[in-house]
């Protein structure tokens, strides 16, 4: 889990859009991100995805159709996202969600490149 930095913007609104499989997050600094469930799932801060040590973590393939079931606030620093594939162990801190929104294009392309190098697919096998 990414830690909460003291100067991190605080979210003012979190909306799960199940029909479009997205999480909309608005921050107090005015930034607003609409993050696809697949993107959030493959970038989960859980040990299952990040791995238990240094390195690139475990490549998440076959997540194109994953959706969000719920978003549960955790204290004043994070949200626990529940996905319809059963994954629910990642705590997304506010600063990590902000980073995911801010860096979405580059992170998504890096993920697609990693899938291609591994010969894996976004679709389930």
TrEMBL record:
InterPro entries attached to this UniProt entry: GBBH-like_N, GBBH-like_N_sf
Organism: Chitiniphilus purpureus
This protein's record includes keyword Hydrolase: no
Keywords associated with the record: Iron, Metal-binding
Occurrences of domain Gamma-butyrobetaine hydroxylase-like N-terminal (ranges): 16-98
Record bears the keyword Cell inner membrane: no
Identification of the protein by name: DUF971 domain-containing protein
